[in-house]
Specification:
The complex is a heterotrimer.
Chain A lengths: L3 H27 L11 H13 L8 H16 L1 H12 L12 H28 L9 H27 L5 H7 L1 H8 L6 H25 L7 H10 L14 E2 L2 E2 L9 H9 L5 H5 L1 H4 L6 H21 L22 H5 L6 H5 L7 H13 L5 H13 L22 E2 L7 E3 L3 H5 L4 H13 L4 E3 L9 H5 L3 H16 L5 E4 L2 H9 L9 E4 H10 L12 E4 L13 H9 L3 E2 L30 H10 L6 E4 L2 H13 L7 E4 H9 L21
Parallel strand pairs in A: 3-5, 4-5, 4-6, 6-7, 8-9, 8-10, 10-11
Antiparallel strand pairs in A: 1-2
Helix pairs in contact in A: 1-4, 1-9, 1-14, 2-10, 3-5, 5-6, 5-7, 6-8, 6-9, 10-11, 11-14, 20-28, 24-25
Chain B lengths: L4 E4 L2 E2 L2 E2 L1 H17 L3 E7 L14 E6 L8 H14 L4 E5 L4 H11 L4 E11 L2 E8 L4 E6 L5 E5 L16 E4 L10 E7 L13 E5 L9 H11 L2 E4 L1 H5 L20 E5 L5 H4 L7 E5 L7 H4 L2 E3 L3 H14 L1
Helix pairs in contact in B: 2-3, 4-8
Chain C lengths: L1 E6 L1 E3 L21 E3 L1 H17 L2 E7 L5 H10 L3 E6 L9 H11 L7 E5 L10 H9 L3 E11 L2 E7 L5 E6 L3 E5 L11 H10 L3 E4 L13 E3 L8 E2 L4 H14 L5
Parallel strand pairs in C: 1-4, 1-6, 4-5, 5-11, 6-10, 7-10
Antiparallel strand pairs in C: 2-3, 7-8, 8-9
Helix pairs in contact in C: 2-5, 3-4
The chains are: A mainly alpha, B alpha/beta, C alpha/beta.
Chain lengths: 683, 322, 256
């Protein structure tokens, strides 16, 4: 009969070896990846660890499961000494951990924690098996439930072992004194049994407890529970660059973009290991929820599985061959990840914002799009837009000389900042300049700026598309070309700050242009108005008294954290804001971003913009749907029409309300069809 | 044929094309003005029967051979070149078509004559023949004299309606010796029929036609809705079909179909000549284009620069309510 | 298969065109010259043939002043050789006779099976490049091509007639083809590859030789067409215009 310590030792070693065998390939696969610079800034990283790892901050965005996970996570961590105790007492009979195994209050704490974990686990099981949320679909649900059962078993067997030890008088003194009431309760389940039976049962529970732990360990690297190990390094080494700053394209075999999984960085691979398949990203994804073929969660899982498969195959024979079943012949894009999946993304950042483990979804999509473009796997519409952008610097295919047509009729003429210095450079963006439906809003903006006494100028024909969505679509080279052209024009001008009405333009100017030396202050017009109001420089003549709802643009809100300035402006105008259920960093994207406005519409069940309008219709008494992005104006005006809500809700750009509030009390609000003199009022 | 005005007749599957009649109208104008004869050159196999339709001409010269049944670029080029070299005309007219443009330049080079492309109209003033061409997408008219002693002119339809070239007279028909055509480096194989569809835009009386200005495929839905309310169908210009937004049978224009509807709504169509060739007559044409200088407004009866994306749904709504 | 693709630059019709009062011809000061759209199709067709059957693609153009980017783009798309021919006052526009005479000289030492070029260009006044070049070279020409297939040395093309009808024609090479549409839309090549080509590739530069005079039709003047008729324009917002148009349609008996 082999002694217990030997058995425990063997079991422990077997578990370690099994774990090692399973974790090593994961590590070597990661070493196939490209290098990544995710170090430095240690203080900020430690802070992030405290807030997001220890504090589980993002998990609480889904309150109930977040709370359950908080207890399971902390419970497990705090009960780790008990596992240690289990192993050590197996190896060294009668061993008791000092303090952690003897001190009364700590024992009580452990008992209570175990209850919390059990409650958390039971909630988790209820959520999985009864509620069955959509976001778990296609995740490894059996594994999820199994692990919950494991954890329950570990906790319950722990309590029972402790309880039985108390019954048999073998527990530490403080436990015997009553510092383990829950264990005692579990022990009372077996009170009626003979001492011999209780001894056997105690051993059984001991082995169940230890066994499940030792089986759990090697299972970790295999699936979604790898995050138990990788979450700490993942959160610690997360990307600290601004969200609105993408990593530039890398070249492999002469082509930009990622065509093979090993062209990703090791840090990106770590992300896929860390994905716990929770599906929160999928829950907030506008593409997924409109029926488009993209789920950020499935994307991460597919990349992870493909990495495993390809890594293993490379280690085995390291060559592609004619075998159709050879994983090495499976192309990353087109097979593992479908082209439509990659093109469906609007780059709204909802997924990256939501993920508790800071897994990045947008960057790998852009990386793969870069590759698709080199293979001409582009739709005709997008190709046409890119051709226009390259030849004319705008996606409309119109001449540069038409960019400033909207300025016709302004008296005095809008300042040409190429010729005369101004305090503020107004960088318009393509949509505000070229789209005929937006001309009025652009002109209103100019009138408001003038009334506010702002010294501003525009670049006229020298402006080009800022390139934000060109980059998101995967044409990094064209982005760099446009950026260079714009910077050349900017270089020749004198200004102190930049303002734009377009959040996409705002994002790239602020985060990717590096306008150093000159003006580094880039504002969205709502930020500028907010400052002007605070300084008393905006001559608001009346309070509008409207009840409105405000839609946070993706590139202003989630990407750049500008949530309050527009709201303050609305309040200053005397409007009452009713928030939509999904507001601020939960706002639903209109669907135009990421170049999608340049692409053919995919077959969708419901357009994100229509879904959003319906959300707004659900609010009571709201008259206006207020936006702060030119693309939002066009998308939501369309959506109001296509959902048949023209008589219920009206879309207004914030600037229209501002202009209205600047008019004298006696004047009535008008939408002006021709630009007015800067000093006259309208009636 | 010498010193005559010569029109090279185009036939397709046994029928004389409308372009030929436009050419005959132009040729007639030149012949009258220069006081010379108008000869139609008819090439094919057993085509003398078609000659009676060519009454606008004084004479019809026929070159017939079984090798010339269907248009064969090289064979046609050879026989026509030989014939014209033997009796050089004053002006040779070709159609601006798949057939005419294969031949015109080759003939011009062989006859050492200048060639004028995209000619819309001709005129004779004081015994001097002149041409007017439409170029640069219809945005520019170029004019000049038709030089002597010989010139090749490629005629674009649009300057003369086909009716102007249909004259009810019987021309004198004679046969020319057929030069040898073996060894031609092009050989006609077969025709490939266009796709069959349930919609024949040539038979529809109301067409809502979309061009590049519609901007994206989704907006075509707006045109479909309007067409449905009007009881018509959607058609389009070549760029829209090339993009795959509409199937080929819906294409209006030189490479597509010729339509004669009661109402032609041109949405986002600039009015390039190739497209206008497809609408020789529409009873009422309404053009919607944000570019007020678009050539389409020169041909349409009514026009507006309103944005189609707003106007089409507005029209649809109002028509529904009516 | 070795293919030559001559590319002609034409005025970009996106811009407004004006007449130069002093010459009576097109004012080229602000005109942007871009590659003829159908020549881009010809290049695409040539590249498709090269991908299927191997061979080389040579792109050649006259130097209108700003042609390098287009040539490097062609190289990045897959062309093997890019050639530009310079001459005096090409930037004032070169007629097709001069263009084809220059091309004939320039390609006289390049072996080829096919010349593919657009079946027409927007600014053609004296014929088109394809058939003129074919005549000079003594080669067969077929235009309005929408499909090119080569099978064991036999070239079969589809020639487009109105209404979607096409004719299948066999052509003996070497030959010149006028492309109406490539089998796929002209491909998009990413900017970084064009930049790469700009750094690593070279453009063969040649000078245009002497050319003999040839009979040409003179252009005595150009004008922006003034039409006799112009559409009756209806102004207003979408609602107002819709009302007005429906009024017109009622008048004409198109709607009840």
């Amino acid at each position: 009969m082999i002694s217990k310590p030997i058995l425990v030792l063997l079991a422990f070693l077997a578990s370690l070896v099994a774990f090692g065998i399973r974790v090593y390939p994961r590590f070597s696969h990661m070493m196939m990846g490209q290098k990544a610079d995710c170090f430095g800034n240690w203080l900020e990283r430690i802070k992030a660890l405290l807030v997001y790892f220890a504090g589980q901050a993002r998990l609480f965005r889904f309150k109930d499961t977040g709370t359950a996970h908080f207890f399971i996570f902390w419970g497990f961590l705090l009960l780790f000494p008990t596992i240690l105790q289990g192993i050590l007492e197996g190896l060294f009979p009668e061993f008791v951990l000092p303090v952690l195994g003897t001190f009364g209050p700590i024992l009580l704490f452990q008992d209570l924690i175990a209850v919390a974990v059990i409650v958390g686990v039971l909630y988790g099981l209820y959520y999985r098996l009864v509620v069955k949320p959509e976001r778990y679909k296609k995740s490894h649900q059996f594994e999820g439930s199994l692990v919950l059962v494991f954890i329950f078993t570990i906790m319950f067997s722990l309590l029972c072992t402790n309880g039985l030890m108390q019954n048999l008088g073998e527990a530490p003194p403080s436990a015997m004194a009553g510092w383990r009431p829950v264990s005692a309760m579990c022990g009372s389940l077996f009170e009626g049994m003979s001492e011999h039976a209780q001894h056997t049962l105690k051993e059984l529970f001991y082995w169940i407890h230890l066994g499940v732990v030792l089986v759990f360990l090697p299972l970790l690297p295999a699936g979604k529970h790898f995050h138990v190990i990788t979450s700490l390094p993942a959160v610690f080494l997360r990307n600290l660059e601004p969200p609105g700053k993408l990593s530039p394209a890398q070249t492999f075999d002469g082509l930009p973009g990622v065509g093979k999984v090993e062209n990703f960085t090791w840090r990106q691979m770590l992300d896929w290991y860390t994905c716990s398949e929770c599906g929160r990203c999928q829950e907030v994804c506008p593409a997924y929820n409109s029926g488009a073929p993209l789920s950020p969660k499935l994307l991460m899982m597919d990349l992870r599985d493909h990495l495993y498969e390809r890594g293993a195959a490379l280690r085995r024979n390291g060559r592609t061959n004619n075998d159709v079943h050879n994983p090495l012949n499976k192309p990353l894009t087109g097979d593992v990840i479908a082209d439509e999946t990659l093109w469906a993304c609007t780059t709204c950042y909802a997924c990256d914002q939501e993920c508790p483990l800071f897994v990045e979804h947008v960057q790998p999509i852009v990386d793969m799009r870069r590759f698709l473009l080199t293979q001409q796997r582009v739709g005709n519409e997008l190709m046409s837009a890119l051709n226009n952008l390259r030849r004319y610097g705008n996606s409309f295919g119109k001449s540069e000389r038409q960019r400033a047509l909207w300025t016709k009729g302004f008296n005095p003429k809008i300042k040409d900042i190429r010729k005369s210095p101004a305090q503020t450079l107004w960088f318009l963006g393509d949509y505000a300049s070229y789209n005929p439906t937006l001309t009025e809003i652009t002109q209103a903006t100019a009138r408001v700026f003038t009334k506010a006494g702002l010294d501003f100028g525009v670049l006229y024909d020298a402006e080009r598309n800022a390139g934000n969505d060109v980059r998101r679509v995967g044409e990094d080279g064209l982005f760099e070309l446009l950026r260079q052209k714009n910077k050349n024009a900017l270089e020749k001008c004198e200004y102190e700050q930049v303002v734009t009405t377009d959040p996409h333009t705002y994002n790239t100017l602020k985060n990717e242009y590096e306008l150093n030396g000159k003006a580094t202050a880039v504002y969205h017009y709502t930020e500028l108005l907010d400052k002007l109001i605070a300084a008393g420089q905006l001559p608001i003549k009346r309070k509008l008294g409207y009840t409105v709802t405000y839609h946070d643009p993706c590139y202003l809100g989630r990407y750049n954290n500008v949530y309050d300035p527009p709201r303050r402006v609305l309040k200053a105008l005397g409007c009452q804001i009713v928030e939509m259920p999904r507001n601020r960093d939960r706002a639903l994207c209109c669907g135009a971003g990421g170049g999608r406005i340049w692409m053919e519409e995919q077959n969708v069940t419901e357009r994100p913009s229509e879904n959003r309008i319906r959300e707004a219709i659900g609010l009571t008494n709201v008259e206006y749907f207020v936006v702060a992005c030119p693309k939002d104006v066009t998308m939501y005006c369309d959506a109001v029409k296509t959902t048949g809500n023209e008589n219920t809700l009206q879309v207004k750009d914030l600037i229209e309300l501002v202009e209205e509030a600047l008019q004298d009390e006696s004047a009535t609000a008008t939408t002006v069809s021709a630009p007015a003199d800067s000093e006259s009022t309208h009636s | 044929m010498k010193d005559d005005i010569c029109v090279v007749v185009e036939t397709l599957r046994g029928e004389v094309t409308d372009t030929t009649f436009s050419m005959l109208a132009a040729g007639r104008e030149l012949a009258n003005g220069l006081n010379t004869g108008l000869t139609a050159l008819l090439v094919g196999h057993e085509v003398q029967g078609l000659a009676q339709n060519l009454g606008a001409a004084d004479k019809v010269a026929c070159i017939e051979s079984s090798a010339l049944v269907d248009f064969n670029p090289e064979a046609y080029l050879r026989v026509i070149a030989e014939c014209l070299k033997a009796e050089p005309p004053r002006v040779v007219l070709f159609g601006s078509t798949a057939m005419g443009t294969d031949l015109a330049c080759g003939i011009a080079m062989q006859l050492n004559a200048p060639v004028i492309t995209s000619c819309r109209t001709v005129a004779v003033e004081d015994g001097l023949p002149t041409y007017a061409c439409l170029t640069c997408g219809g945005k520019i008219v170029a004019q000049g004299p038709i030089p002597g002693p010989m010139c090749v002119v490629i005629v674009m339809p649009g300057g003369y309606k086909a009716e102007q070239g249909r004259i009810d007279k019987t021309p004198a028909v004679y046969a020319l010796a057929t030069p040898a055509v073996d060894g031609a480096r092009t050989v006609f194989n077969q025709y490939i029929e266009p796709e069959v569809t349930d919609v024949d835009i040539t038979k529809e009386s109301i067409l809502v036609s979309v061009g590049r200005g519609i901007q994206n495929q989704d907006n075509i839905e707006l045109a479909e809705k309007l067409a449905a309310v009007l009881g018509g169908v959607v058609s389009g210009s070549r760029p829209v079909v090339d993009q795959g937004w509409l199937p080929t049978p819906r294409m209006v224009g030189k490479s597509g179909k010729m339509v004669k509807p009661k109402l032609y709504l041109a949405v986002g169509i600039s009015g390039a000549p190739e497209h206008l060739e497809g609408i020789p007559e529409a009873e009422t044409m309404i053009a919607i284009n944000t570019d007020e200088k678009a050539p389409i407004f020169d041909v349409a009866h009514y026009g507006t620069t309103a944005d189609a994306v707003e106007l089409l749904p507005a029209l649809t709504e109002k028509l529904k309510q009516a | 298969m070795d293919i030559i693709v001559p590319i002609k630059f034409v005025p970009d019709l996106v811009e407004e065109l004006e007449i130069d009062d002093s010459t009576g011809l097109l004012d080229r000061t602000f005109v942007r010259m871009i590659p003829n759209e159908l020549d881009e199709h010809a290049l695409e067709q040539a590249l498709l043939l090269k991908e299927k059957q191997g061979g080389t693609v040579t792109v050649i153009t006259l130097d209108y002043g700003d042609v390098d980017e287009a040539l490097f783009t062609a190289k990045a798309k897959g062309a093997d050789r890019i050639i530009k021919i310079s001459g005096d006052d090409f930037d004032q526009g070169v007629d097709n006779h001069a263009t084809t005479a220059i091309l004939q000289q320039a390609i006289s030492d390049i072996p080829f099976d096919l010349v593919l070029t657009g079946t027409q260009a927007v600014d053609d006044l004296d014929g088109s490049v394809g058939p003129l070049l074919a005549a000079r070279l003594g080669l067969p020409y077929v235009g309005y091509i929408v499909r090119v297939a080569s099978d064991n040395g036999t070239l079969t093309v589809a020639k487009e007639y109105p209404g979607g009808l096409t004719a299948e024609i066999d052509v003996t090479m070497p030959a010149v083809l006028g492309i109406q549409a490539a089998e796929k839309p002209p491909r998009y090549v990413v900017t970084s590859l064009v930049m790469e080509a700009m750094k690593s590739a070279t453009i063969d530069e040649q000078g245009a030789g002497e050319r003999a005079d040839e009979p040409l039709a003179e252009v005595s003047g150009m004008a922006i067409p003034e039409s006799g008729a112009h559409a009756e324009m209806i102004a207003g917002d979408a609602q107002e215009v819709a009302e007005a148009l429906i009024g017109v349609m009622r008048e004409k008996g198109i709607v009840g």
